[in-house]
Amino acid sequence: MFTGIVEETGRVLAFEQGEKAWRLRIAAGAALKDLAAGDSIAVNGCCVTAVAFGDGEISFDVLEETRRRTNFDDLRPGSRVNLERSLAFGGKMGGHFVTGHIDGTGEIECFEPRGADYYLRVRAPEGSGRYLVPKGSVAIDGISLTVAEVEGDAFAVWIIPHTLAVTNLAGRSAGERVNLEFDLLGKYVEKLVAVPAS
Fold it and tell me: Is 102:188 a contact under the CB 8 Å cutoff?
């Protein structure tokens, strides 16, 4: 479980197919603190397991399923990725509950400065608009954000300068893919409403 409050941006060192899984190696700093083998880290919002670490880097095994459902396929050496360690009991709870289970990828339609802030509009996968409500929560590349407007399967958020400075958004542009995780509560409500009581 995560909060969507990014702790740092890491840099991809390699993302290569191995015999049993894809191996993702990331240069990191803060994410290494108190890290143990088997710990979960959100990489661009996707929960992956640390299998090796040290000397300023972390390695993860990535399933083919994960690669297909996320924007990991776009990663290249040098790519910046958002990193967050899993939520610790007794820690601060900012953002919203984020599971790290990506629902799909969206495409950036517009990302531009408007006044002191930035306007980000994303086209979500077809049919996803039902999970989006104004003032609700969404995680974009693992960043907890508040939905400002919804139009069908497209939605917009506002980005404050601090978020732009501490995440990988500063290098993003229209046409690029982002990982999306919709609010967990909305998905459960949909399931409960759809299933008749027994």
Answer: no
